[in-house]
Amino acid sequence: DFLQEGEPTSARCDDLAALKSKGCPMEDIENPRGSKQVLEDREVTNRKIGAAEKLKPEAITQIQPQKLVLKLRVGEPQTFSLKFKRAEDYPIDLYYLMDLSYSMKDDLENVKSLGTALMLEMEKITSDFRIGFGSFVEKTVMPYISTTPAKLRNPCTGDQNCTSPFSYKNVLSLTSEGNKFNELVGKQHISGNLDSPEGGFDAIMQVAVCGEQIGWRNVTRLLVFSTDAGFHFAGDGKLGGIVLPNDGKCHLENNMYTMSHYYDYPSIAHLVQKLSENNIQTIFAVTEEFQAVYKELKNLIPKSAVGTLSSNSSNVIQLIIDAYNSLSSEVILENSKLPKGVTISYKSFCKNGVNDTQEDGRKCSNISIGDEVKFEINVTANECPKKGLNETIKIKPLGFTEEVEINLQFICECQCQSEGEPNSPACHEGNGTFECGACRCNEGRIGRLCECSTDEVNSEDMDAYCRRENSTEICSNNGECICGQCVCKKRENTNEVYSGKYCECDNFNCDRSNGLICGGNGICKCRVCECFPNFTGSACDCSLDTLPCMASNGQICNGRGTCECGTCNCTDPKFQGPTCEMCQTCLGVCAEHKDCVQCRAFNKGEKKETCSQECMHFNMTRVESRDKLPQPGQPDPLSHCKEKDVDDCWFYFTYSVNSNGEANVHVVETPECPSGPDIIPIVAGVVAGIVLIGLALLLIWKLLMIIHDRREFAKFEKEKMNAKWDTVSQEAFICIKATVV
Predict the structure, then answer these.
(1) What are the C-alpha distances in Å from 421 to residues 240, 412, 439?
(2) Is the model's pLDDT at 240 over the cut of 60?
(3) Which region among 139-148, 342-351, 632-641 has the lowest average model confidence (pLDDT)?
(4) Closest CA to 282 of 315, 316, 313, 305
(5) Measured at the alpha carbon of residue 475, what is the angle toward residues 470 and 480, in degrees to the nearest 5?
(6) Cα(424)–Cα(693) distance, integer angstroms
(7) How crowded is residue 200: how many other Cβ atoms within 10 Å of its Cβ?
(8) Is the CB of residue 88 less than 8 Å from the CB of residue 51?
(9) What is the Cα–Cα distance from 153 to 155, expressed in whole angstroms?
(10) Where along the sequence do coiled-coil regions lie (predicted)?
């Protein structure tokens, strides 16, 4: 009875919240969860160099855990922590692969004593060190070497005594005897070839895949590749008529590579694969001239390093030590090929609080011996593999032999599927298996209860049972007709469901309010809202609750309106507000609250003594100025008031009532009072005016006096001049008169 009519059987499967909302009890819900189980969890080894206890390499643990089982449910990640600790005094195998073409003649002399010298240096790092030696020249076909009999015996010119050319030779398998290294390498002779690039890739491939002949152990494996030239790679063999791709297999006979004339050089990708598979870390010891080339190669080969070799290899020991420290200071995790639909992600927790995710989450750098780092690894199944078979993946640090083995078990079915009842009477006389509350029909049977046979059913006849009366649509175009019954479509949104005998109903096409189906106050059934109690309307958006309409006086809408859908509809258009309490055009709103506002805001007025009893029916807020008062346009009805207080001062306030029936008053905190005359400025102004007028009069008088004095002086000067003229005239007259006499 869980499914509605027309719902498909698959509707039994849904997310947890949806099943609960449909009324499925928790005890009837099957919801298997993923899990993890650690099967092998040895602690990482704490060991000091020079310790009395000598552990075998396989007894040293650097990675934890070692084995676990993850049960994966699709879409649910499982997380586990991986710990890595670089062990002290960890064994090292080092194989020295040297180019013995003629240009390396002086280098060979320095390498002859490398064994014992390198042993002494490596004792500072590990007490378990082994060393081996191999050499290479070139493929023994034209045009890489001269194939004339004389040149095959001695490829060098003049009186130089050189050994016959060869592709690769394993001179000394890995040994802990440094003297033996010096002895055998001391017997080696330089050879020669025609072209500059060498056949070093052939040699690297054989060193990587011929583990038994080389003597590699499951410890740190170092390959030192020493040359002063470039390299041939896949495709170059065509010059010598060699077209077969390198097969990546061991072809050593009597420690000599015998198939150089048959297989092409390996590609870089092929070398990367084999070096990684065999946990070999490569150190390229090359001269300054070819540094750029081998640095590019290093970027393609994980866990490799490049060092600058002096012209005669005199610095090779320090180069090896530096490169080893560089390689061992970084740990990079890699995983084997993942099953289809499985993804993995890493998060690193390195030294000094350095954390990274995505690709950088796979590695940690600057790790010293004894340092411990952690990784958080998420494994997620995005789909179930075919037949739900278990899979195994492995995670390991590059260049190390230790690994974490993870067995993946996929949860692809519910437990109830394994508990089904075959040929159950519940499935129409045993025509199906009753499992997980539904029938899984036997072959040849269809229908919800497997009641129809595919051989007997005529689809056209059955379609008539899936049409509504006077309709041509099968299952209302919302489903398909199976065995004369409509099975409705599933929607992308699992909460949206078609139902009904003809799939004519749904739960998502009802009226909406506030963007919600049935306003969130009802359930959509067959395109009609069934409202919760106290709600009505086509979208359940009308509340029957009258409490929001109740005024403070106990009346609904203050007796001035009707309560409709929880909101007052005021019958008198003059009134408004949540309970029809406001009348902006009515006189007395401001006067009614004037005394209470005055006593609350300024502690004065007629109601000063009874303020706490009569004037606490509103919330009051003080503002600095009239500009800060609420302005028209807000949702709540608002009255602006200007009243005089007992001191003949004007004070301003607003009065409003919100949707909850609460009265709010905003009042300007400072009244505007008429100010009296200011005596001091007036007196000062009068005095200043009198002084200024006096000064002006004095200046005018002084100016007039100056003008008068100047006029008098000018008059005096004129009269003085006239008097002087009269005296001269008289003297002249007397003189003339005397002459006449």
Answers:
(1) 71, 19, 9
(2) yes
(3) 632-641
(4) 305
(5) 145
(6) 128
(7) 25
(8) no
(9) 7
(10) none
Give Dmax over CA atoms of the chain in angstroms: 195
What percent of the chain has pLDDT above 70? Answer: 92
Domain boundaries, the chain: 35-48+62-88+332-410, 92-328, 512-543, 545-586, 592-668
Q: What is the mean pLDDT of residues 400-416?
A: 87
Residues in the chain: 741
Strand 638-644, strand 561-564: pairing: unpaired
> Model confidence over 113-144: pLDDT tens digits?
777 788 888 888 888 889 999 999 888 888 87
Find, among 400, 324, 370, the residue nearest to 87 by Cα: 370
* Topology match between the domains 512-543 and 545-586: yes
At how many degrees (to 10) do helices 268-277 and 200-209 cross? Answer: 30
Would you say domain 545-586 falls under CATH 3.40.50.300? no
Beta-carbon contacts of residue 108 (< 8 Å; ≥ 6 apart): 98, 100, 185, 188, 190
202-229 pLDDT, tens per residue?
999 999 999 999 999 888 899 999 888 8
The single-letter code of the amino acid at 48 is K
Can you read off the two tokens belonging to residue 285?
């010891």
Under a CB-based contact definition with an 8 Å cutoff, are residues 301 and 275 in contact?
yes
Residues contacting 565, CB < 8 A, separation 6+: 537, 541, 542, 543, 544
Q: What pLDDT score does 82 carry?
A: 92
Angle, vertex CA 44, rays to CA 43 and CA 47, nearest 5: 120
CA-angle at 290, arms to 286 and 294, nearest 5°: 75
Backbone angles phi, psi at 136, to 5 degrees: -150, 155
Top-tier CATH class for 512-543: mainly beta
Which tokens go with 178? 């440094």
Strand pairing category for 304-308 and 280-286: parallel
CB 41 within 8 A of CB 82: no
pTM, to two decimals = 0.56
Model confidence over 251-306: pLDDT tens digits? 999 999 999 889 999 999 999 999 988 889 999 988 888 889 999 999 999 888 88
**CATH class in words for 35-48+62-88+332-410:** mainly beta
Calpha distance 389→383 (Å, rounded): 12
Burial class for 110, CB neighbours closer than 10 Å (0-12, 13-18, 19+): middle
Mean pLDDT of the chain: 84
Give the end-to-end CA distance of the chain in Å, rounded to a whole number: 179
pLDDT of residue 71: 92
From 606, 664, 669, 602, select the one nearest 638 (Cα to Cα).
664
CATH assignment, 592-668: 4.10.1240.30
Decide if domain 92-328 falls under CATH 3.40.50.410. Answer: yes
Closest CA to 625 of 595, 663, 600, 652: 652
Cis amide bond preceding 425, omega within 30: no
For 43-66, give one letter per residue: b (16+ CB within 10 A) or e. ebbebeeeeeeebeeeebbbbbbe
Residue 107, phi-psi category: left (phi > 0), alpha (psi -120 to 50), beta (remainder): alpha
CA-to-CA dists, residue 596 to 269, 649, 665, angstroms? 91, 16, 10
φ/ψ of residue 381, rounded to 5: -100, 120
